[in-house]
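step=encode ok
step=design start
structure_in=
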C-alpha cells in the first residue's frame, strides 16, 4: 500500500532486512520476513554471524500483530531454527509466543507452528518444549489445549519415549480426560493410547486408576485394538541431530524400519524404566492405628486381615520413599515367616516383603540378607505354593545385595540339615550366578561357593545332587572352563560330564533377570527334544479308537444265535419264526407247562381280560384271568396268560379256521339288543324248549354264557350279535370240541343255548 505519494514505499524498501522486520508497516515486515528466509537458507555455516543479528528478534517474529505478516514470520523462524546453531537460545521465548498466538489461528499458520515446535525437539530442546507445552495445557482456550495435546502426541509418536519423556506431562494429561470440551477429551484419549504403546499396561494402569469407569472402559477398548507385537509396535521415525548420520546410513542401504530398533542408540527405548515415572509414597503414614496390635494377635484371622490391608496398600503404591525407616515393619514380617504356624498368614507376609523389596529396590539393601535367610530357611515347609512365594521374595530382594555379602549366609544354608532347604538355596544361587560376571564373582569368592556345592554333589538326595550340578554348570557357563575346571579336579568323569550338560543348557541373565543379548543361543536343542515325543504319540492316538468297535458289534450276535435252539425244543412252534419276544417270554416261565385239560370257571359278571399266547406254551395263569368263557372248537386254543409288558404274541391257527373281521360298532346298540332278546324269547316259548335268556344293559360288563350239559350230543350254538343281528354258527359237530375256548367280545350280546329235540 502506497501512502503519501509512494514516499513510504521507497523509504522502507531501501532499508536492510533486519530493519524491515521491525518496521511499523506490516507490508514492510512481511517483505523483511521473506528476505530473512532466503538469507538464512543461503548461509554457508550454521555459525554465521548473520544469525546473531536475529536472535533477539525471533520472539517478535512469532507474535506479529498482523496475521498475514505473522504467517511469513513463522517461515523465517522455521528457517532460523533449522539452520542456525544458536537457535536453541530462543526456544523458550519463541515456543511460548507460538503457543499463545499461533496454535489457535488458521490451519496453515498452525501447521507451520507445529513444524517449529518439532524442529526444536530435533535440535535436542525437548525438555524446554515439554515444559512450555505443559504450561499450554492450563490455557483457558480449548483450541490451544487441544493443540498442545496433539503436539505432545506427535512428538512422542515420532521421537519416542526416550527423546520425549512421558513423566513430566502424564499427570497433567489424565485430568483432561474429563474436560468439558469434547475435542480436548478426544485428544487426551489419543495421547493416553500413545503413551500406552510406549510404557505398557502394567505401568500405565496404576496411574489412571482414578479415571471414571466410563472413560476407563473407552480406554480399555482402544487398548484391546492395539497389536503391540505387530503393526502398532512403537518405533522412532524421526531422529535428533545427533542421530542424523545414522538415519542417512539407513536410507542409503534401504534398511527397513523394523530393523531400526536394533540400533544401540535406540535400545534405550526398551530400557525405559516405568518405575522412575511413579511418585514415591510413604505407606507407614497410611497404616491403620491398630496395625501393630492386630499383627501380634493370637487369632490368625486378625493377623491376616491387617496383612491383606498392607498388601493392598503396597500394590496401589508400587514406589516407596527411600528415606523412610521400614526396619520395624520388616522385622514383624520376618518373624511371621519364620515362626507363624498358619500358612495363609505366612504367604501374605511373604508377598508384603516382596512388594517392599520391589518398591525400595536398592534401598532395601539394609534388610536384604536377613530376609533371604529367613525365606530360604522357611522352605523346609516342603509345600509347593509356599516355596514358590518365598522364591519370589528372594528374587525381589537380591538386587539390594550381592554375592559377596550373601556368601556367609549361603555357606550356612548349603549345610542345612533339611535337604529341601539345601536344594532351594542352590536353585537360588543358580539364578544369582546367571547374573554374575568375573568382576562380581572373583576367584576368592568363587572358592567359597564351590566348596559347599561340590560337597552336595555326593548327597544321597537326588534333588540336592541335581541342583548342585546345575549351580556348578551355571558357574561353568558364566566364568568359563578356565576359571572353574581347576577347582573340580576331585570330581570323577561322570560328574564332570553332567556339569557340562547343565552348562550347555544354561542361559545367562542381565540384572533385570532377562536373557542377555550377547549370550549364545542354546535353545536350539530343546525343540528337537520336544518334537520326538510328539511324533511317537501320534500313531498311538490313531490306533486306539478302532479297538472298541468290533467288541460292541459282537454282543447282539451272541444273544440272537442262542435263540433258535430254545425255540426248536417245542414242536408246535416249528412253523413260526422265533422272535426275541417269544424267547424272553419262555425264559420268564419258571414252571413246567401243564396238560391241556379244560379249566372250568364259574360264570361271573366281573370284567374279563384275555391275552393270546403261543401254542408252544399253553400255560394258563388262573390268578390273572377273568372267568367268562364259552366252549368252542379245539382249533382255537387260547391262553389267558398276560405278559409283563402287555404285548400280544402271535397265534398259529389251522388252515380250516376262519376269523370274521370285527364289524363296525353301531350307535343303536342297546335298542338292537332289547328287540333281539324279545324275539328270541317268543321263539323259545312257541317251541316249548328250555331257554335261559340273559341280557346286559351295561356295555362294559362281562358277557354271560351257559355251558353245555351234554358235551357229546349234537349242539348248535347261535350267537346273535347286537350290532347287525347276524348269527355266527360254530363249526360242524365233528370238528367241535367243548374243551376249547374263544375270546369273548366285551360288547353286550345275548347267548342262547338251544337244546336238541
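sequence_out=
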Amino acid at each position: 500500500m502506497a501512502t503519501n505519494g509512494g514516499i513510504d514505499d521507497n523509504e522502507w524498501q531501501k532499508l536492510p532486512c533486519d530493519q524491515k522486520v521491525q518496521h511499523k508497516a506490516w507490508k514492510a515486515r512481511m517483505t523483511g520476513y521473506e528476505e530473512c528466509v532466503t538469507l538464512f537458507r543461503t548461509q554457508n555455516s550454521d555459525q554465521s554471524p548473520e544469525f546473531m543479528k536475529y536472535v533477539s528478534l525471533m520472539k517478535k517474529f512469532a507474535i506479529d500483530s498482523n496475521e498475514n505478516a505473522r504467517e511469513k514470520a513463522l517461515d523465517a523462524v522455521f528457517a532460523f531454527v533449522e539452520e542456525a546453531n544458536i537457535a536453541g537460545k530462543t526456544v523458550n521465548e519463541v515456543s511460548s509466543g507460538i503457543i499463545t498466538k499461533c496454535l489457535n489461528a488458521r490451519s496453515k499458520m498452525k501447521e507451520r507452528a507445529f513444524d517449529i515446535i518439532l524442529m526444536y525437539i530435533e535440535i535436542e530442546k525437548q525438555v524446554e518444549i515439554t515444559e512450555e507445552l505443559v504450561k499450554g495445557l492450563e490455557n483457558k482456550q480449548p483450541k490451544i489445549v487441544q493443540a498442545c495435546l496433539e503436539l505432545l502426541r506427535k512428538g512422542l509418536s515420532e521421537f519416542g519415549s526416550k527423546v520425549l519423556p512421558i513423566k513430566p506431562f502424564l499427570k497433567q494429561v489424565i485430568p483432561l480426560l474429563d474436560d468439558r470440551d469434547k475435542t480436548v477429551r478426544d485428544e487426551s484419549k489419543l495421547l493416553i493410547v500413545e503413551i500406552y504403546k510406549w510404557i505398557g499396561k502394567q505401568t500405565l494402569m496404576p496411574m489412571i486408576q482414578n479415571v471414571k469407569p466410563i472413560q476407563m472402559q473407552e480406554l480399555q477398548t482402544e487398548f484391546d485394538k492395539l497389536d503391540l507385537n505387530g503393526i502398532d509396535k512403537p518405533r522412532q521415525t524421526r531422529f535428533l541431530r545427533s542421530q542424523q548420520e545414522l538415519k542417512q546410513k539407513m536410507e542409503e542401504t534401504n534398511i527397513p524400519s523394523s530393523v531400526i530398533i536394533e540400533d544401540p542408540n535406540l535400545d534405550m527405548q526398551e530400557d525405559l524404566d516405568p518405575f522412575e515415572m511413579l511418585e514415591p509414597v510413604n505407606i507407614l503414614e497410611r497404616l491403620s492405628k491398630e496395625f501393630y496390635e492386630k499383627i501380634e494377635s493370637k487369632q490368625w484371622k486378625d493377623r491376616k486381615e491387617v496383612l491383606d490391608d498392607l498388601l493392598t496398600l503396597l500394590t496401589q503404591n508400587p514406589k516407596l520413599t527411600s528415606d523412610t525407616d521400614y526396619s520395624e515393619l520388616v522385622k514383624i514380617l520376618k518373624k511371621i515367616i519364620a515362626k507363624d504356624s498358619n500358612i495363609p498368614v505366612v504367604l501374605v507376609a511373604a508377598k508384603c516383603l516382596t512388594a517392599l523389596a520391589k518398591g525400595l529396590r536398592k534401598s532395601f539393601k539394609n534388610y536384604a540378607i536377613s530376609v533371604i535367610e529367613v525365606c530360604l530357611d522357611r522352605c523346609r515347609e516342603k509345600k509347593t505354593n509356599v516355596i514358590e512365594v518365598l522364591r519370589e521374595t528372594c528374587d525381589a530382594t537380591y538386587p539390594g545385595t550381592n554375592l559377596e555379602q550373601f556368601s556367609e549366609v549361603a555357606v550356612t544354608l548349603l549345610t542345612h540339615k533339611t535337604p529341601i532347604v539345601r536344594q532351594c538355596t542352590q536353585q537360588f544361587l543358580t539364578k544369582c550366578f546367571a547374573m554374575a560376571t568375573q568382576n562380581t564373582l572373583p576367584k576368592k569368592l568363587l572358592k567359597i561357593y564351590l566348596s559347599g556345592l561340590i560337597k552336595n554333589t555326593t548327597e544321597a538326595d537326588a534333588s540336592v545332587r541335581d541342583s548342585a550340578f546345575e549351580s556348578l554348570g551355571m558357574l561353568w557357563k558364566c566364568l568359563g572352563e578356565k576359571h572353574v575346571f581347576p577347582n573340580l579336579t576331585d570330581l570323577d568323569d561322570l560328574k564332570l560330564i553332567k556339569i557340562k550338560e547343565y552348562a550347555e543348557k544354561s542361559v545367562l541373565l542381565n540384572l533385570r533377570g532377562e536373557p542377555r543379548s550377547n549370550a549364545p543361543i542354546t535353545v536350539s536343542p530343546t525343540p528337537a527334544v520336544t518334537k520326538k515325543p510328539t511324533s511317537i504319540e501320534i500313531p498311538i492316538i490313531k490306533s486306539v479308537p478302532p479297538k472298541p468297535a468290533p467288541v460292541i458289534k459282537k454282543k447282539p450276535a451272541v444273544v440272537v444265535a442262542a435263540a433258535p435252539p430254545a425255540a426248536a425244543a417245542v414242536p408246535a412252534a416249528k412253523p413260526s419264526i422265533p422272535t426275541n419276544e417269544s424267547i424272553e417270554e419262555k425264559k420268564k416261565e419258571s414252571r413246567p407247562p401243564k396238560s391241556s385239560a379244560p379249566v372250568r370257571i364259574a360264570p361271573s359278571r366281573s370284567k374279563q381280560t384275555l391275552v393270546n399266547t403261543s401254542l408252544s406254551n399253553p400255560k394258563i395263569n388262573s390268578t390273572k384271568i377273568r372267568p367268562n368263557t364259552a366252549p368252542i372248537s379245539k382249533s382255537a386254543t387260547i391262553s389267558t396268560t398276560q405278559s409283563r409288558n402287555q404285548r400280544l404274541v402271535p397265534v398259529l391257527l389251522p388252515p380250516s379256521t376262519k376269523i370274521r373281521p370285527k364289524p363296525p360298532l353301531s350307535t343303536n346298540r342297546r335298542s338292537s339288543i332289547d328287540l333281539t332278546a324279545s324275539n328270541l324269547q317268543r321263539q323259545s316259548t312257541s317251541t316249548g324248549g328250555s331257554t335261559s335268556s340273559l341280557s346286559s344293559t351295561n356295555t362294559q360288563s362281562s358277557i354271560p354264557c351257559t355251558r353245555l350239559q351234554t358235551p357229546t350230543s349234537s349242539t348248535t350254538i347261535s350267537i346273535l350279535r347286537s350290532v347287525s343281528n347276524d348269527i355266527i354258527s360254530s363249526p360242524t359237530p365233528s370238528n367241535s370240541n367243548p374243551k376249547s375256548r374263544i375270546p369273548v367280545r366285551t360288547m353286550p350280546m345275548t347267548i342262547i343255548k338251544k337244546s336238541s329235540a
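step=design ok
step=annotate ok -> DSSP finds 31 helices and five strands in the chain.
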